[in-house]
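Quick one: structure tokens for this chain, please?
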Amino acid sequence: MTDSSNANKARNLKIARNEEAKQVAGSARVSISAIVAVVIVGGILFTLGWLGLR
């Protein structure tokens, strides 16, 4: 292989790793947002239930 082929392979590998890191970060952000939403909705439902029993 030529030097340019090796350079392209290295560049493509670096790009793939960066894209993977972005995807993992995006997935974590979505998961955290979903957990926060569930906690907020659960808190509201718990409060309404508690007030309904009083």
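The radius of gyration is 23 Å.
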